[in-house]
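queue> pop job 88
queue> type: inverse folding (structure -> sequence)
queue> payload:
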C-alpha cells in the first residue's frame, strides 16, 4: 500500500497498522500537523507525503492517488467523496443486478466485475483506508 486517507474524524488505528507499507501519500484532516500522525501511527516523516483535506472531505484532484482519470476509486455517486452513501449505492446496485454500471470506480479487487467482495473492500477502504 502506498496511499491512505485518514482524514475522517473519529477514526482510530493501532500504532503499527501501517507497518510494512510504503506510504508516500497520506490524506489527513487540517486540524493536526503531519508530525502528529507520523509519530502516532508510524507514518512517513517526510511532510511532502501529507495532503490536508478540508472538512468537506473532498480529495484534491491534482494530488489524489485514489483517482482513475476523473473518477475517484469507490466514489460511486461521483460527489468527490468516499463515504457510506457510496457503499449503500453499490450494494443496492449489486443486489438489483446492476452493479456493472459502476465497474470503472467500484471494481476494488480488479477482477473485471462487481461482486460482494467489492462492496466489502469498499467498506474497508472507507473505514480503514486500506
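queue> result:
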Amino acid at each position: 500500500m502506498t496511499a491512505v486517507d485518514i482524514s475522517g474524524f473519529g477514526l482510530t488505528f493501532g500504532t503499527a497498522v501501517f507497518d510494512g507499507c510504503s506510504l508516500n501519500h497520506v490524506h489527513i484532516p487540517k486540524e493536526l500537523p503531519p508530525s502528529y500522525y507520523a509519530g502516532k501511527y508510524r507514518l512517513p516523516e517526510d511532510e511532502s507525503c501529507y495532503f490536508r483535506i478540508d472538512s468537506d472531505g473532498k480529495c484534491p484532484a491534482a494530488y489524489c492517488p485514489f483517482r482513475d482519470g476523473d473518477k475517484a476509486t469507490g466514489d460511486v455517486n461521483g460527489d468527490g467523496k468516499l463515504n457510506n452513501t457510496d457503499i449503500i449505492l453499490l450494494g443496492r446496485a449489486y443486489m438489483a443486478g446492476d452493479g456493472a454500471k459502476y465497474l470503472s470506480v467500484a471494481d476494488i479487487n480488479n477482477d473485471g466485475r462487481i461482486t460482494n467482495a467489492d462492496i466489502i473492500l469498499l467498506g474497508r477502504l472507507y473505514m480503514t483506508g486500506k
